Amino acid sequence: MNDGYPRWKRVFWMLMAGLAMFMIGKAVVPELLVAGTEGVAIVRIEGPIMDSSQAVEELQAFGDNPMVKAIVVRIDSPGGGVAPSQEIYNAVKRVRKEQNKTVVASMGTVAASGGYYIAVGTDRILANPGTLTGSIGVIMQMANFQELLEKIGVKSVVIKTGKFKDLGSPFRPMKEEDRQLLESVMHDTLTQFIEAVADGRSMDTSEVEQLADGRVFTGRQAKSVLLIDEIGDLHDAIKLAGELGGIEGTPRVLETTKPFSFQEFLESTFLGSMRSLAPSRFSAPLLYLWVA
User: Fold this and answer.
1) I need a surface site. Which of 5, 43, 176, 243 has the fewest CB within 10 A?
2) pLDDT tens per residue, the chain (292 residues)?
3) Predicted structure pTM score
4) Catalytic (active site) residue 151
């Protein structure tokens, strides 16, 4: 049959239609499989924590779902911004208290600083023996370019309404009163971290303070100082969450499927290696972050 339409175009559009059906099916079928079946949901927190919106939305959605009896928060992160870490922590607490859902933390390769902050909001914490966790502390990093600018003959002109308005400026030396002010802010932020750990782990603040010097622990070491509950992997965490949620037998697992993006596919395929070589940039100067 020759209707004037090139055969290769027919084949191309058939392949594209097949790809579209595959991606739609991939997104919809998992939802159909768990419909009407009680299960355990997984919320993943991966990489530097600089935005909380996706994790908070997933926690809220799974908390509202009557078929989800428990949630596993899978953490593989060195931490990140103070505020987004606290927002996810608060979302975990709301799911437990207001929606009466069991939440279990499962630690991957690393769950440090802000990642650990989130974990202490859960009912139970599991880590692999070699997981790196802890790093209870706060860090603020700033560069100073004053001497470099002086060498090339560039001067910075700043007009401000108060003596601390350009606090942390890279174009002037830090004064002692600047440092004292920043240290007071960091001390209060550290106190918030210590109080969250003490509350979540049922420890005295004095006990947590002894561990809050930024050090990291392996999963096995963390268990010995009561920072986690058990040694176990993601499979163990799902099983435990199911048991605590009252599910008999092997629980169904529900996880949000991210919509397919052809642009993101191309970027991850062809630009992933280049991005991994690029230096990390953080928009927040005050961080619950383990800097390795």
Assistant:
1) 176
2) 455 556 766 767 777 777 666 555 555 444 444 455 789 999 999 999 999 999 999 999 999 999 999 999 999 999 999 999 999 999 999 999 999 999 999 999 999 999 999 999 999 999 999 999 999 999 988 888 888 888 898 888 888 898 888 888 888 888 999 899 989 999 999 999 999 999 999 999 999 999 999 999 999 999 999 999 999 999 999 999 999 999 998 899 999 876 555 555 554 544 444 444 344 444 447 888 887 6
3) 0.80
4) no
Lookup: tokens for 48? 């530097």
Cβ neighbors of 73 (< 8 A, separation 6 or more) are 43, 45, 59, 92, 103, 104, 105, 106, 118, 119, 122
User: What gap in Å lies between CA 263 and CA 283, rounded to an integer?
Assistant: 24
Would you call 165 a catalytic residue per the annotation?
yes
Catalytic option among 101, 113, 135, 223:
113
CA 130 to each of CA 105, 107, 171, 220: distance values in angstroms, whole numbers, following the listed order: 16, 10, 42, 7
End-to-end Cα separation, the chain, in angstroms: 65
Superfamily of domain 9-259+280-289 in the CATH hierarchy: 2-enoyl-CoA Hydratase; Chain A, domain 1 (3.90.226.10)
Please identify which of the residues 165, 184, 224, 261 carries the catalytic annotation. 165
Domain parsing of the chain, residue ranges: 9-259+280-289
Token duo for residue 287: 């961080």
> How many angstroms separate the CA atoms of 7 and 103, rounded?
55
